[in-house]
Amino acid sequence: MYVQTRKRSPLSGSSALLAALVVGIAAPAAAAEGALKVRTSAIAAPCVEAVGQAWEARGGRSVSVETGGLRDRGAWDVLVGSGVELTRALEGGEADVATDVDIATIPWVLHVPSGGDVSALSDLTRSNVEIVMPAGDASYEARRALAEQGVRRVLETTDAARLRSAPVALVPLSLAGPGKLVSVDIPPIRVSAALGMRARHAVDAAAFVSYLGSEDGQQVFATCSAQ
């Protein structure tokens, strides 16, 4: 089971930052003083870190990944998160509306570390086990699916370790740890990226966003998984 990549949507707008995109893909800027500050939601963090390592291996500027809300005010060079999270960052003026790029879709799975008898979302209705899931805007579809199944014992958390160790967790594949994984019929999370409005390394940030949406970047993103 893998994260599915998406076709990169063309960047629009006339921002001068975007002139560096093609150059950045062909020959990333060498690491210079100060790392790229990438702000990402927890759902995308493991995969963004993997892409950042691949980017640095190609000679790109070093990448510092920080997990947190995308609407928090800060001098982020790049923001990465679910579609709903990035949209709110764009609407709130934290990200450049002319630079958003689709990266991938991450499927939801049931994670059962002990390999128990849960084999479908409907099994949770008969179980008395508390279901743990990520808190936040990106979990809307998962939250609704549990409600439709009549599941009442649900704990939402931002603690990645708690998500991985829970007896039963409903999580994006990127946050699943070792153990049994069960596919579920929940719309996947669409992940996108954009430049921060207060980017300090605008040219390199534009190149990194383009790399995230490139075939190479998407392949690295697609094969990542939290360990």
What does this structure look like?
This protein has 227 residues and is of the alpha/beta class. The protein folds into two domains: 124 residues, D-Maltodextrin-Binding Protein, domain 2 (3-Layer(aba) Sandwich), CATH 3.40.190; 76 residues, 3-Layer(aba) Sandwich (D-Maltodextrin-Binding Protein, domain 2). 30% of the residues lie in helices and 22% in strands. The strands form three sheets. The chain has a six-stranded mixed beta sheet. About 11% of the residues have low confidence.
The CATH homologous superfamily of the largest domain is called Periplasmic binding protein-like II
Question: How would you write the strand order of the largest sheet?
Answer: 1-5-11-4-2-3
What is the CATH C-level name of the largest domain? Answer: Alpha Beta
Tell me the number of helical segments per DSSP (H or I, 4 or more residues long). Answer: 8
* Mean pLDDT score: 84
Strand residue content? 15-25%
Tally of domains: 2
CATH architectural name of the largest domain: 3-Layer(aba) Sandwich
What's the structural blueprint in terms of helices and strands?
Layout: E1 4-5, H1 21-26, E2 36-40, H2 45-57, E3 63-67, E4 78-82, H3 83-91, E5 101-106, E6 108-112, H4 123-126, E7 131-134, H5 140-148, E8 154-157, H6 160-165, E9 169-172, E10 180-183, E11 189-195, H7 202-213, H8 215-223
Parallel strand pairs: 2-3, 2-4, 7-8
Antiparallel strand pairs: 1-5, 4-11, 5-11, 6-9, 6-10
